[in-house]
Amino acid sequence: MNRVTIKDKTFEVSMPAAQIQARVKELAQQMSRDLEGKNPLFLAVLNGAFIFAADLMREMTIPCEISFVKLASYQGTTSTGKVHEVIGINENLTDRTVVIVEDIVESGLTIKRMMEQLGTRNPASVQVCTLFFKPEKLTVDLKLDYVAFEIPNDFILGYGLDYDQQGRGLKDVYTLVKGEGEG
Questions:
Q1: What's the predicted TM-score (pTM) here?
Q2: Engineering a disulfide at 42: which of 9, 36, 66, 97 sits with its beta carbon 3.0 to 4.6 angstroms away?
Q3: What is the pLDDT of residues 128-153, one digit of tens each?
Q4: Is-contact 1 158, C-beta < 8 A?
């Protein structure tokens, strides 16, 4: 299935599932080495990061915990630029190593907001792990500790990422076909 149509847009495979799985495994191995002895708490950002977070957790070789937060800044294929918290953080973060697990970092606003909120809860450290990073879209000063893939500024879906809530379950990652528009 090289092309799919979701609602009114056509997408084609840009990253096969095997490539994603291999990179997630490499990232988990690196994180397991870096975070050994720290029992990190992964805070996975819903909805997009749930598949990535699950696969990452299954590949970790050290004790770790996971929880979920939900922030939204998208409508269709366009970021609204405003982050709205929907589900908050209930865990005690004092002296914990916290790893934010995100599906994609573009402007950096979501991660910046989360880091500000987490910083008030006295964690030992806050790190960021993202599946995808669009460096040319970054608008804030932000340190990303773990990046699986740097990608161009194309609209993508699959492997948890969506277009109007559709396409999350696709195993491969698909890119919007040029000429389809992004609005």
A1: 0.89
A2: 66
A3: 999 999 999 999 999 999 999 999 99
A4: no
Go through 5-35 and write b for each residue having 16 or more CB atoms within 10 A of its CB, e for each that does not.
ebeebebebbbeeeebeeebeebbeebeeeb
Helix (H, G, I), strand (E, B) or coil at 171: coil
DSSP 177: P
Distant-in-sequence, close-in-space partners of 164: CB < 8 Å, separation ≥ 6: 6, 7, 76
Bridge partners (DSSP) of residue 98 are: 41, 126
- The whole-number pLDDT of residue 82 equals 61
What 3-state class would DSSP assign to 19? Answer: helix
C-alpha torsion 137→141→143→146, nearest 10: -10
Of all residues in the chain, the percent with pLDDT exceeding 90 is 75
- Asked whether the predicted pLDDT for residue 86 surpasses 50, the reply is no
Report yes or no: 71 and 86 within 8 Å, Cβ to Cβ. Answer: yes
Give the span between the Cα atoms of 111 and 115, in whole angstroms.
6
- List residues bridging with 6 in a β-sheet: 9
Spatial distance between the Cα atoms of 178 and 95, rounded to a whole number of angstroms: 47
